[in-house]
Specification:
By secondary structure, this protein is α+β, with helices and mostly antiparallel strands. 24% of the residues lie in helices and 26% in strands.
Length: 380
C-alpha cells in the first residue's frame, strides 16, 4: 500500500483560527508490528524534525521498493500548536501558552481502570490478550473529550500511538550528548535501539515517571503484567523510548542523515522494513538508572563559566562550572564553584549562560544512584 498523508483537525483555539496535525502512514493499517515515531513534542526542539525529514526520504524509497512489512506512522511536527508560539522572534514551544503546561508532562494514565476492564476477558492466548488490552485502551480514549486545542492535540497523538508495538518520542536537550530514556522493564530488550542510535547515556526509569508521552503507552503494560502476577500470559505490548538528539543548536544534515539511517536500521531489525542492516554496533555506554544522573543547579543568579567540556570524564568533587556575579564588589570573590557529586561524564550543559537560582547548569551521568535523586526524576 502506498504512503498515506493524513491531516487531523484540532479544536480551534480562536474564532477563525484552526490548526491540523499532519502525519505520514506507511504500510497496511493494522499490520504488525506497528511503529509510531514523532518529533518535537517540545516544539522548540528542532533537531528531531530534521531527522524525521530524512527518515521520510528513506521510508519513501523503501515503500517504492515494496520493503515496508509492518505499519509505520510518522509525525514530523508533533506540536503544531507550539510551533506557533513565537514571542518577539523567539520560539517558545516547550510550554503551552494558555495553560503553562509542559507539552511532555502529565499525559493521561491509560492504566486507570484498565485491569478491571480486561481481567474478565483475558485468556490463555497471549496474542489474544494483547488485542484485548489494546481494545480496552481504545475504549478509554474514545470516552475522552477534548476541552481545548492542546487537549485535542494530545488526544489525536494518543489515538495514533496507543496500539503501537513501538513508540519513539524524539527530542533534544540544551547542549548534550545523544542519550535515551526508557523503562527499566525494557532493558536489555531495548539495547538494540541504544546501540543503533549511539546513545552515550541510556537512562532507565520506573513507572512513577512524570507522565511523559512514552510513559503513557509503556507504563500500562508494565503495570498490567505486574498486577496479573502470571495468572494470564501477557507480554509488554509496547516498547517505548525517548530519544534526545544532542542539543537544540545541533540542527545539521551531518547529524540528521546518520540519525535517520540509525532509526531506519532499528525498524529493519524490529521487522517493520525488509532488508538486512549491517551488524549491530557495540553499545557506546551501559544503561543505568536515571537516579545515577547528577543534576547540578545554580544556587544564585549569575553567569555560567564552564570548566568542563561536554563529554568530559569527571570525578566527584570536581568543579564543572563557576557561577560569576558580574556585580560583585570584589571581582576576586565573584566566582562560586559548582561541583558534581558523582564520577561520570558531563552529559549536558546550558546554552544560555545567564541563569536564575535553581536553573540546571549541567548533568553528570555516573555509575551509581545518588541518594538525593528520588521521586520524579525529570525536570520540567
Amino acid at each position: 500500500m502506498s504512503r498515506q498523508v493524513e491531516n487531523i483537525s484540532l479544536l480551534a483555539s480562536h474564532v477563525g483560527n484552526s490548526r491540523t496535525l499532519k502525519l505520514y502512514r506507511y504500510g497496511q493499517p493494522g499490520a504488525r508490528p506497528k511503529a509510531y515515531v514523532q518529533a518535537s513534542l517540545h516544539a522548540d526542539e528542532i533537531p528531531p524534525m530534521l531527522v524525521q525529514h530524512h527518515l521520510l526520504r528513506l521510508l519513501d524509497k523503501a515503500e517504492r521498493e515494496g520493503a515496508i512489512r509492518g505499519e509505520i506512522v510518522v509525525v514530523p511536527v508533533a506540536n503544531p500548536v507550539g510551533v506557533a508560539q513565537v514571542m518577539h522572534g523567539v520560539l517558545l514551544g516547550r510550554f503551552d501558552f494558555p495553560s503553562g503546561a509542559n507539552a511532555n508532562r502529565n499525559w493521561p494514565d491509560l492504566s486507570i481502570g484498565l485491569l478491571e476492564r480486561v481481567r474478565p476477558l483475558l485468556t490463555d492466548d497471549a496474542s489474544v490478550n494483547v488485542s484485548t488490552v489494546r481494545a480496552a485502551m481504545a475504549e478509554i480514549l474514545a470516552s475522552a473529550q477534548a476541552v481545548n486545542e492542546m487537549a485535542s492535540l494530545r488526544l489525536a497523538l494518543a489515538n495514533l500511538a496507543y496500539d503501537a508495538d513501538i513508540v519513539l518520542d524524539l527530542h533534544c536537550d540544551m547542549e548534550a550528548l545523544p542519550h535515551l530514556f526508557m523503562h527499566a522493564a525494557h532493558w536489555p530488550a531495548g539495547a538494540d535501539l541504544a546501540a543503533e542510535v549511539g546513545s552515550q547515556a541510556t537512562m532507565l526509569t520506573d513507572i512513577a515517571g512524570n507522565g511523559t508521552f512514552e510513559h503513557a503507552f509503556a507504563a500500562p503494560w508494565i503495570k498490567l503484567v505486574a498486577a496479573l502476577e502470571g495468572s494470564h500470559p501477557l507480554p509488554l505490548g509496547c516498547f517505548a523510548a525517548t530519544m534526545e538528539y544532542r542539543g537544540s543548536a545541533d540542527v545539521d544534515d551531518s547529524f540528521a542523515v546518520p540519525d535517520a539511517q540509525a532509526l531506519f536500521r532499528f525498524l529493519q531489525r524490529r521487522g517493520l522494513i525488509g532488508g538486512s542492516p549491517d551488524a549491530l554496533s557495540e553499545l557506546a555506554a551501559p544503561a543505568r538508572l536515571a537516579a545515577c544522573c547528577d543534576t547540578l543547579r545554580a544556587p544564585v543568579a549569575g553567569i555560567i563559566a564552564y570548566r568542563k567540556a561536554l563529554g568530559s570524564t569527571v570525578k566527584r568533587g570536581e568543579v564543572i562550572a563557576e557561577l560569576v556575579d558580574p556585580l560583585a564588589d570584589d571581582p576576586e570573590q565573584a566566582r562560586q564553584p559548582i561541583v558534581t557529586e558523582t564520577d561520570g561524564i558531563v552529559l549536558s550543559r546550558r546554552l544560555d549562560r545567564l541563569v536564575q537560582p535553581g536553573r540546571i547548569v549541567a548533568r553528570v551521568f555516573g555509575e551509581h544512584p545518588l541518594p538525593y535523586r528520588k521521586g520524579l526524576l525529570l525536570d520540567d
